[in-house]
Amino acid sequence: MNLHAMLLERQAAGRPVTVGLIGAGKFGTMFASQVRLTDAMHLVALADLDVSRARRQLRTAGWNDESISAPSLGDALARGITHVTEDTEALIACPEIEVIVEATGVPAAGIRHALSAIRHGKHIVMVNVEADALAGPLLARKAKTASVVYSLAWGDQPALICEQVDWARTCGFKVVAAGKGTRYEPHYHRSTPDTVWDILDKYLSITDRNSINPKMFNSFVDGTKSGIEMTAVCNATGLLPQSGGLGFPPATRFELADVCKPKAAGGTLERAGVTEVTSSVYRDGRDVPHHLALGTYVVFEGESDYARRCFKEYAMLPDKSGRYAALYRPVHMIGLELGVSVASVALRKEPTGAPTGFRSDVAATAKRTLKQGEVLDGEGGFCVWGKQVPAARSLAEGLLPLGLAHEVRLKRGVAEGECLRWSDVDYDENALAVKVRREMEAAFGRPNEAGDPSPG
């Protein structure tokens, strides 16, 4: 509740929080639109492979040419303006930058940048949830060892869900389920960048298709992004994935406590203490009214008659039995809210969610029958989607992480719906992302190691 007051103290001392942003995509641009308006926060540099595009993005976000005219990092620091560059390593190495925001969305790049930031003693806000799902527990451990903070990104749904779980537990409630909403039908798992428009056109009015990356959008549609984000939540909170992955049950905002509770209590979950994503579409294709497609939620249990009575008295969206209740946030504002994470890691030295164990994983799963010799095209593509699986299963069966299912060739055919394995592909064992992932698997051989928070 005092982050802004702490920022004002830094402003009065003439010491703004200094930030380096990597990636000028949608998330990074949204952050840029607000950081220039935030007291005592200075975006010293923005790094992107396409400098011209990065400058265009900043102008779109409200920056004028003078604000992005610094020819060097030193000039940016001296004049309080921003340096735009393609030199990511120089940005990370700059001694005066305190916080690195990694917003590329590319798993291998995210891992490389995080490790570099840790080596240079920088806090890192990992917008790149793809990298977090692939190796976040190890990156967070390395950051802690180096006395810097590794944090999930506020404004993205995983960090918001972590906050709701923390709220419930701090209030003494047992968390039954937590997650988000999305638009889902079973056939979406087969969606490709070519067919995604058949789905998007039903509920989004996108007049300029050239402004949209269909592969990126497809990762939201085909279920991959849900698996990635719920894996981040599990690894940060101690909640567990369900053995069969996400079920995507349809639910209105007002049915969350009835739907997202254990089957034994009349709900849809296999047990308490798990993640789930609700659908805004019924299985017959009808839209769910009052759905939670852009929001987040937590379902918790009242363990006394008095607490359950209070659920009803204070309209806490109880289920029909009165035993369970839900709290939801209807929307998330993505990069517009990211300053909360930047301020938290710089001023409080606290993450807005961070992995504490390896409990959940995202397995590359065939969208169609795949043939020997095919080259996989990764997240949101034509070949695979990402399914949330328990980490114990992933380790035991040698499942191929989705984040490494890119530009690797299949050694055998794989049936539609089958999870791929490491042994199914030719991969470069010396690639940094592969080595870091293998190091994480060795370090977190047990999915719930000592010291993890209770799943309850």
Write the layout of secondary structure elements.
Layout: H1 3-12, E1 17-22, H2 26-35, E2 41-47, H3 51-60, H4 73-79, E3 83-85, H5 88-93, E4 99-102, H6 107-119, E5 123-126, H7 129-145, E6 150-152, H8 157-170, E7 174-182, H9 196-203, H10 214-221, H11 224-237, H12 256-259, E8 274-279, E9 296-301, H13 305-313, E10 324-329, H14 339-348, E11 360-366, E12 375-377, E13 384-390, H15 391-397, E14 406-410, E15 425-426, H16 432-443
Parallel strand pairs: 1-2, 1-4, 2-3, 4-5, 5-6, 7-8
Antiparallel strand pairs: 7-9, 9-10, 11-13, 12-14, 14-15
Helix pairs in contact: 1-14, 6-7, 7-11, 7-16, 8-11, 9-10
Largest sheet, strands/sense/barrel: 6 strands, parallel
CATH topology of the largest domain: Rossmann fold
Overall form? globular
- Residue ranges: pLDDT <50 for 5 or more in a row? 447-456
How many separate domains? Answer: 3
Overall mean pLDDT score?
Answer: 95
The portion of residues assigned to helices is 25-40%
**Rg over C-alpha atoms, rounded to the nearest angstrom:** 22 Å
Mind telling me the CATH superfamily name of the largest domain? NAD(P)-binding Rossmann-like Domain
Helical segment count: 16
Query: What is the SS-derived class?
Result: alpha/beta
Distance between the termini: 26 Å
Total beta-strand segments? 15
Q: For the record, what CATH class of the largest domain applies?
A: Alpha Beta
Please give the CATH architecture of the largest domain.
3-Layer(aba) Sandwich
Strand content range: 15-25%
**Biggest sheet, spatial arrangement of strands:** 3-2-1-4-5-6
